[in-house]
Amino acid sequence: MKAPHIFLGLLAALLITVWILDTPPVPLAQEGTVTITYWEKWTGFEGEAMKATVDYFNDLKIKNKKGQIIRCEYLTTTNVDRKSLLAIAGGQPPDLAGFWSGNTHVFADMGALMPLDEFIERDHFDMDKYIDVYRRSCTYRAAGDTQERVWCLVTTPASVALHWNKEMFKEAGLDPEQPPRTIQELMEYNRKLTKRDDKGKIIQMGFLPIEPGWWNWAWGYWFGGQLNDGFEKLTADDPRNIAAWDWVVSFTEGYRPEVLQAFSSSFGSAFDSPQNAFMAGKVAMVVQGVWMANFIRFHNPNLQWGCGPMPAAFDTQGQPVTVAEMDVITIPRGCKHPDEAWEAIKFINSLEGMEYLCGKATNRLTGKENTGGQGKLTPFKENSPGWIERHSHPYLRVFIDLAKSKNAHYTPQLAVWEEYRSELDAAFQRAWLQKATPAEALQQVQERMQPKLEQALRIRRYREMGN
Amino acid sequence: MAATDTRAKGVVFALPWILGLGIFTLYPFCASIYYSFTDFSVLQAPKWIGVTNFQEIAADAVFWKVLRNTLLYAGLSIPAGLLVSLTLALVLNGVRRGQILYSVIFYLPHLIPGVASAILWMWILNGEFGLLNSALRPVLELISPSWAPPVWLNDTRFALPALVLMGLWGVGQSAFIYLATLQDVPQEMYEAAEIDGATTWQKVRFITIPMISPIIFFNVIMGIIGAFQVFTEPYLMTGGGPDRATYFLPHYIWDHAFRYLRMGYACAMSWILFLIILLLTMVAFRLSKDRVYYAGR
Q1: Nearest chain A Cα to B47, which residue?
Q2: B252 to chain A, minimum CA–CA distance in Å?
Q3: Where are chain B's structural domains?
Q4: Which of B47, B154, B241 sits opposite A463 (nearest CB)?
Q5: pTM over 0.80
Q6: pLDDT of chain A along its 467 residues, tens only?
Q7: Domains and CATH numbers, chain A
Q8: Angle at Cα B269 formed by Cα B266 and Cα B270, nearest 5°?
Q9: A456 min Cα distance to partner chain B (Å)
Q10: CA nearest to A399, candidates A45, A178, A155, A160
Q11: Which of A106, A261, A265 sits opposite B261 (nearest CB)?
Q12: Cα separation of A176 and A284, whole Å?
């Protein structure tokens, strides 16, 4: 045998050995057990909390109608919606898929999900226990349907609030326990908290509306605006939305766009990093979600911070404004074990399962306390006595109150929502970079997206007629 | 008989590739023609809607903007890539000691995965702490204290050129190909030119470039195809922004296919992209007729 052949032979043997050693053993199907698959997007603390909750479900050894024990296999999947999309289209979906509240209704429209109403009725599952905004977000009248149905239940409920840096407040001579209560006050605080160096370069800001920039489309809510009026009419150019964007863009007054862009580029691009503008002390106030406490604890545990409702520009009558987003769990149509999948959803959405997922709770089988779950609120109106007090989030009640507010907004359930949001984001950038006025930018969105929505609805009706 | 037998064996051996090509390339390629005339979300059966998608594309202002961006990117990145890689190869060709070492160094960036290099370049191009601006800032301040370097990816005017600049990082591969070809140019030609008193530039212009023209042509074609398919870097580094300054056609197609669930519309745009690439390649072939020298012909 020639030397290269020996070398290639050894290389092949090595690769095969590595492959064999690296391949995890395939669990043998146990008699009396039925395994369901669950694709979920989360990594990090949410992923760990969800995995622990699934483990808890498996520990309970819940049985299906045939008396088989249900075992849930949890798989973290990137781009879970796209992969699920292809798996559903290919007829091989997982039994459970974790989506975002923003695209669940689109999947429902396309018949890709199973409605949960039958299960809910059969098991007398209580939907009234949910905080209104979360319950409504799970419900949708899909294309071709005559009634609203429940298409998903909740996994990671959240609401957003104003977070402020107490140390920076103290330095600026502000009361660290007193956040701004009005938009005017917020502007005043911003002026006091913004600092420049000798050359006029911004080194610190009180409030920067594009940080983190995730809810640029939603600013109108704090001015009493809406993005849609029902399912058929968009209201991007609602005067209250324009007023909100005018206010946001007023933060750029006195600066060239590049100055603020240079300042914001100094944060780096990763939210989950020590360079984060809020955690690094570069921006004193940000609108952030309930998850922020976890990141602060991880990246800057010594940060002195507070949080409360973001001030609104209209009379909210004691009902603060927030965006109440959530991630959801669904049963894809065509999955192998819908009944068993429902059992898992039911456990996760029980008080026991949800409190274990969202905060500090005890596994009643092992008696062991978890590490604190995903550090969020539950989507329920009521929690177990003492659960909030034991929770790791020091301001959890703020987020619960915000979610319960009548001015808590959830993602509009529009056929063209993803594209609408992209357009709003692009328009926002135009306005922020002073390439268009907010009125012009929002008008352009309205003119572009309303016909698209109408066309989508026309095609939907055309499909319904054909079917 | 023997010939038939050999052919059959050949087909059998090639069958996995033929099947793969047929199922994973040819079928989607053909199916996408049909889908471009339908409303198709992947989750529902396609519904024939005639030329509606194409009509909508014609009236889609964002499509025209991303097409303009894509053409601009191609127009900048192809000549820039060609110039830099060729210059690099010419310089390396003149290096007598350590040529292999330098070649390897310049080739290395090509081996780094797109995602990793995108993240690396996000930091190099960071407006505040980036390596590039750290080098530029003192130079600009020396010229005028009020001058500041651009914030690259955050500035609508500089984001696209910044991506072109980043693209030059990966010219090592084409430079490597040029270098191999340069070493194949007969030395006698240079010697003859030297005897005739040719300058270095004249040697490059009248000997080197004509002799390596087939490879230049090959790299131009690959450059056209690559530039029109640019996706990973802008997707990761800018998300198409700021103000859609780096929003390219492949990204727009992807958004429609997988975010907006409008696969039919995405297929229609893909066909337009395909036709543009085809047209430009044909133009390149036509232009190459009198400009590319094949010694074997």
Answers
A1: A463
A2: 11
A3: 54-288
A4: B47
A5: yes
A6: 455 566 667 766 777 776 666 655 545 555 689 999 999 998 888 899 999 999 999 999 999 988 999 999 999 988 898 899 889 988 999 999 999 888 899 899 888 999 999 999 999 999 999 999 999 999 998 887 889 999 999 998 999 999 999 999 999 999 999 999 999 999 999 999 998 888 777 889 999 998 888 999 999 999 999 999 988 899 999 999 999 999 999 988 877 777 787 788 777 667 888 888 899 899 999 999 999 999 999 899 999 999 999 999 999 999 999 999 899 999 999 999 999 999 999 999 999 999 999 998 988 888 888 888 889 999 999 999 999 999 999 999 999 999 999 999 999 998 899 999 999 999 999 999 889 999 999 999 999 999 999 988 888 888 777 65
A7: 33-157+325-404 (3.40.190.10), 160-323+414-456 (3.40.190.10)
A8: 85
A9: 10
A10: A160
A11: A106
A12: 11
Residue A322 main-chain phi, psi, to 5 deg = -155, 165
At A246, which amino acid appears? Answer: D
Place of tokens 């977070």: A163
Cβ of B39 within 8 Å of Cβ of A459? The answer is: yes
Q: Is B151–A435 a contact, with Cβ atoms under 8 angstroms apart?
A: no
Residues 6+ apart with CB under 8 A from A462: B47, B49
Distance from the B72 Cα atom to the nearest Cα atom in chain A, whole angstroms: 20
Which member of A111, A264, A466 has the closest CB to residue B43?
A: A111
Q: Are strands A326-330 and A96-100 parallel, antiparallel or unpaired?
A: antiparallel
Under CATH, to which class is B54-288 assigned? mainly alpha
Count other Cβ atoms within 10 Å, centred on residue B50: 9
Q: How far is A89 from chain B (nearest CA, A)?
A: 5
Pair of tokens at residue A254 = 């006195």
Task: Mark out chain B residues that contact chain A at CB-CB < 8 A.
Answer: 39, 41-44, 47, 49, 56, 61-62, 122-123, 126-129, 148, 150-151, 153-156, 241-244, 255, 258-261
